């Protein structure tokens, strides 16, 4: 029960950050949460475990507070859609992830770097960080100095200058046309989870090959040396040169964040319950249909997949390949993998 207070469908953490982030980011979604009504109708739900017969306790809501509780789940989805998983936010997070990847790849240094990171955050006489002065710039300074190599330092520099990677493809949660087949988003999410670095490198190479084909088409035109064509060829060459460098295409596909493994449960008000306590236990089994059927689908919609590229080549890729061309490249790369029962992707034979 104590765990559900800080990690449940309606916990104090969500009531805190959803309202605060709404106000600080000038979004009005948090205003839809009727906190007073919600708190007034909180109760303890007693759930009987059918396997061992034990009683489990968690925070729930009386029926009168159902609308306030379900409004919280909608507000959370809207904030994820418009703020936490906004394409700019995800671009920065993906860039930062790529910048510090060499550190996590070298397992021999992980322990010492973890200790150094804790010391950096620790406020004491030996620390050069004043209390409350751990800023974004100081954090990036430390990451750049301690965790990154030459290529990764370029990414940190771009974050400082607010030159974020640009999205070139968004993959939505559309269902496949054939029954029993996974959608592109599901396949992309699975491959991304286990083989992110591999798929990024292969996708970048595939995009480069496709751009080379476009260049060849331009060279095969009747007057390839006309001023317009010469300018186009220079633009393509510049993009091809950039794509020959590592980490110019990065992918991001987060898992749907449902917030908790528990479910939002309602209980009738005490006056509507019978005196038999066992009936009260069974009455607490009602699960919110909004949480069970709608909320999970909404979070899956919000966690769409994205492909980002270096900002200097974005216009060129959009002009000559477009989202459909990028999508074809991604599908060609993904189909070379097949899923095994060991939750690992291997190139298809």
User: Whole-Å distance between the termini?
Assistant: 50 Å
Q: Please list the strands of the largest sheet in the order they lie side by side.
A: 1-2-5
Unreliable segments of 5+ consecutive residues:
340-349
Helix content: 55-70%
Q: Could you tell me the mean pLDDT?
A: 82
Structural class of the helices, strands and pairings? mainly alpha
Which sequence of SSEs, written as H and E, runs from N to C?
A: HHHEEHHHHHEHHEEHHEHHEE
Report the biggest beta sheet as strand number plus sense, adding barrel if it closes. Answer: 3 strands, mixed
Q: What share of the residues does DSSP label as strand, in percent?
A: 5-15%
Shape: elongated
Computed CA radius of gyration, to the nearest angstrom: 26 Å
Tell me how many strands there are. Answer: 8
SS summary, helix count: 14
């Amino acid at each position: 029960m104590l765990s559900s207070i800080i990690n449940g469908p309606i916990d104090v953490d969500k009531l805190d950050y959803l309202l605060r982030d709404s106000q600080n980011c000038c979004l009005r979604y948090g205003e839809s949460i009727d906190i007073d009504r919600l708190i007034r109708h909180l109760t303890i739900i007693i759930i009987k475990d059918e396997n061992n017969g034990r009683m489990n306790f968690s925070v729930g809501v009386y029926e009168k507070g159902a609308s306030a509780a379900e409004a919280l789940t909608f507000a959370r989805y809207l904030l994820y859609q418009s703020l936490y998983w906004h394409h700019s936010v995800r671009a920065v997070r993906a860039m930062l992830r790529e910048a510090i990847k060499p550190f996590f790849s070298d397992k021999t240094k992980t322990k010492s770097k973890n200790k150094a990171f804790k010391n950096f955050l620790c406020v004491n006489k030996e620390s050069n960080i004043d209390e409350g002065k751990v800023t974004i710039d100081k954090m990036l300074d430390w990451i750049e100095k301690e965790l990154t190599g030459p290529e990764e330092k370029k990414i940190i520099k771009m974050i400082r200058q607010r030159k974020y990677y640009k999205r070139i493809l968004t993959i939505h949660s559309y269902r496949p046309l054939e029954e029993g087949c996974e959608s592109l988003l599901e396949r992309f999410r699975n491959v991304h989870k286990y083989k992110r670095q591999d798929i990024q490198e292969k996708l970048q190479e595939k995009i480069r090959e496709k751009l080379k084909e476009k260049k060849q088409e331009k060279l095969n035109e009747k007057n390839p040396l006309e001023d317009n064509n010469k300018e186009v060829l220079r633009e393509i060459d510049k993009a091809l040169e950039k794509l020959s460098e590592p980490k110019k295409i990065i992918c991001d596909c987060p898992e749907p964040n449902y917030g908790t493994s528990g479910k939002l449960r309602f209980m009738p008000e005490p006056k509507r319950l019978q005196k038999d306590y066992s009936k009260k236990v069974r009455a607490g089994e009602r699960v919110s249909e909004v949480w069970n059927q709608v909320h999970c689908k909404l979070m899956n919609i919000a966690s769409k997949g994205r492909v980002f590229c270096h900002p200097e080549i974005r216009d060129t890729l959009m002009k000559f390949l477009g989202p459909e061309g990028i999508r074809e490249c991604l599908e060609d790369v993904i189909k070379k993998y097949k899923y095994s029962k060991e939750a690992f992707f291997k190139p298809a034979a």
